[in-house]
Amino acid sequence: MSDIPNLYIAMISVHGLIRSENIELGRDADTGGQIKYVIELAKFLAEHHTVDRVDLFTRQIVDKKVSTDYAQSEESIAPGASIIRKPFGPKRYLRKEVLWPYLDHFANEILKHFRAIRRMPDILHAHYADAGYVGSKLAQLLGIPLIFTGHSLGRVKRKRLLEQGMTEEAVAARYNIYERIEAEETALATASMVVTSTHQEVEEQYQLYEQYQPETMEVIPPGTDLSRFNPSRIPLPRYPYYSSLKRFLNDPNKPMILAISRADERKNIAALIHAYAERKTLRERANLVIVAGNRDDLMQLNSGAREVIRNILYLIDKYDLYGSIAFPKHHAADDVPNMYRMCAKTQGVFVNPALTEPFGLTLIEAAACGAPIVATNDGGPRDIISNCRNGILIDPLNTGEITEAIETLLLHRDQWRQFSQNGLKGVRRYYSWMNHAKTYLQRIKRHMKTSRRKSFYISSGKRLLKADRLVITDIDNTLLGDMESLHELMDLIHNRSNIVGFGIATGRHIESAVNVLQEWDVPRPDLLITSVGSEIHYGDDLKQDMDWDRHIDYKWEPESLREFMASFPGIELQPEENQRKHKVSYYIDPSIAPSRREIVRLMRENRFHVKVIQSHQQYLDFLPLRASKGLAIWYMASKWGIPMEHILTAGDSGNDEEMLKGYNLSVVVGNYSAELEPLRKNPTVYFAKASYAGGILEGMNYFDFMGEIKMPEEGNA
Ligand code: GLC
Ligand code: MG
Questions:
Q1: In this structure, are 134 and 277 located in the same domain?
Q2: Which atom of ligand 1 lies at the shortest distance from residue 615's CA?
Q3: Could you tell me if residue 357 is inside a domain?
């Protein structure tokens, strides 16, 4: 098959500090291996002849505490590859766990960007759960294939924390773990291809997911930038970092036992110090060099890192390692390759004793510079050592084993040389970014063949009735319920019809919606989103949007869904007239039926690509994964060029949730149903005191929707 030429790949990586030069690896928990991974991937994909352009979308950060580099809206990585930074949420730097409420805004900014450059990507590639959320939304809207790389997974973390004795509540509160897991499930459901680094990741980690689909999983180990990581002939004393080490070591020329990681409990650095300190021969023959992030004032670090460093300092003192251990406070990203080289030059060993190691990028880098490795017997190191045969696996909890392994390599020169050579060769063969990019593009070609690439994006066409802004409201219990305020609202919209358009978004089907509006004397809306977002109709002649209809049809199998649902207690099919092409609806009795969560789980387990929507503790709707009131609005708005900030939605119950929480303004009317309570966290959602249309009027007033339109400060949420 011939190559698909001129690819435009949009990558998304939301959190941490991302820049192309001098990456601040280890500065905090969010600025780790993933940052480097995405930069390198972008660079090497762009080098491939079939790729025209790679844009890496991330968050723009304006904060005195971090470099102004992160405030630049664009930065070139290499020819054809750029970082594009978009503002969303508060301007300041935030940890990844608190970014969730702002991600819809981010998705919208990315969409605006595509529109501005007048080009849609051929592939979206999302990294980590947060980008998975954004990427799924965009992919579902635009009909573009999504690639997902989890990097690390919420279910794995949750399991580990529970095993360590943390309670469910604490895990949820501290890490927002359920939002993360939900986003991962959605990303797995949406993705055409999932890239993992090791086989173990697939078998032990992704396996925990309801949406585990092994046929979409591709193991493509990360590459190493061989132009940065390679051996060198420079004599030891000429390394710039040599003088920094001289401050610590009596004899810097001794073999160097090197460990580089973040200052994190899980990196298990203390075990290495015990292993070294307790064997006299090791202390005599070799130096220990520990690089654990950068620090100025210990007291200003977060408590986790502070504890780790305090403990290292304690052990140095306890074992009296002065003169044979180096524990530098600072290093630059560019010092790292030199450290590996110095380790190789002194015929030392690189050690990674982390409690778990799914990945092991540092091991590959060390090997690329010629250092043999000793590493935890876990997924990443196992793959690396079985490919390269360049080191020894150890049990990280057994310090005796660590000692033995290091000693074996230091004492047996032949074996050292063999491992060093094997590593140099193996890395070039298995872990170069160039090979990674090649494999990646081959595999995606295969997956793109099976996923639909049709993009319905239409940038031309008239705007929806020349509207500058749009009020879109649910019908039952929102627009309708109180005659007086309804008339007031309709008059207001009618009098300003030169600027404001009017739409409804309802669970009813089109005929029923039209009828009830007539009964209440409501003028025909400009836009009718019906059957819970599965159909869109326009204007007087109720013309249906067939692009939407085709778009959401993806992986929709209503017959088998109905068959599957037939046997559940407390769930009964609604009358045939409520069953639509893209909507299957039931009445539900929550006291005997399985919970919504449980139904979602069953859907995923049985590979139904559906959205499950419950309203008023009474209705249960199934829609295609790409449909909902919220997605219908987003689609319609981008099709007609109406900014999301100029849309106000109003609703009262569960089937309104998605359209209320998107990056538009919204009002929850006073008479709302309990499912919507969690939306109070959302900065763009206003909870009105008044009921029905009165609530909508109150919300319009609150946002000054007919005037300047006040977008609430997200930072105040
Ligand atoms: C409307 C529809 C019904 C749906 C409910 C909740 O009442 O007629 O089919 O289940 O809205 O979305
Ligand atoms: Mg309603």
A1: no
A2: 6
A3: yes
Same domain, 282 and 330: yes
Enter the DSSP assignment of 204.
I
CATH number of residue 289's parent domain: 3.40.50.2000
How far is residue 548 CA from its own chain's centroid? Answer: 26
Q: Ligand 1 atom closest to Cα of 620?
A: 10
Dump the DSSP string for 643-685. Answer: -GGGEEEEE-SGGGHHHHHSSSEEEE-TT--GGGGGGGG-TTE
**Domain span at 586:** 565-625
> 427 and 470: one domain?
no
d(CA 283, CA 287): 7
| Residue 595, number of CB atoms within 10 A of its CB | 10
Q: Which atom of ligand 1 is nearest to the CA of 587?
A: 10
Instruction: Please indicate, yes or no, if residue 2 is contained in any of the structural domains.
Output: no
Give the predicted TM-score (pTM) of the model.
0.65
- The stretch 277-296 carries a mean pLDDT of 95
Q: Whose CA is nearest to atom 8 of ligand 1?
A: 508
Same domain, yes or no: 644 and 657? yes
| Closest to 430 (Cα-Cα) out of 372, 393, 387 | 387
Domain count, the chain: 4
Among 476, 514, 578, 581, the mutation site with the greatest number of ligand 1 atoms within 8 A of its Cβ is 578
- In a shared domain, residues 598 and 686: no
Ligand 1 environment, Cβ below 6 A: 507-508, 532, 574, 578, 585, 615, 619, 621, 655
What the block records as the tokens of 70 is 């992160």
Do 546 and 404 belong together in one domain? no
pLDDT for position 449: 65
Are 30 and 133 part of one and the same domain?
yes
Per-residue pLDDT reduced to its tens digit, 181-239: 999 999 998 899 999 988 888 888 999 998 888 889 999 988 888 888 999 888 999 99
Substitution site in 619, 655, 658, 675 for ligand 1 pocket (most atoms within 8 Å of beta carbon): 619
User: Which residue is closest in CA terms to ligand 1's atom 3?
Assistant: 507
So what's the pLDDT on residue 692?
97
Nearest CA to ligand 1 atom 4: 507
Q: Per-residue pLDDT tens for 502-520?
A: 999 999 999 999 999 999 9
Give 141 Cα–ligand 1 centroid separation in angstroms.
Answer: 23
621 lies in the same domain as 638: no
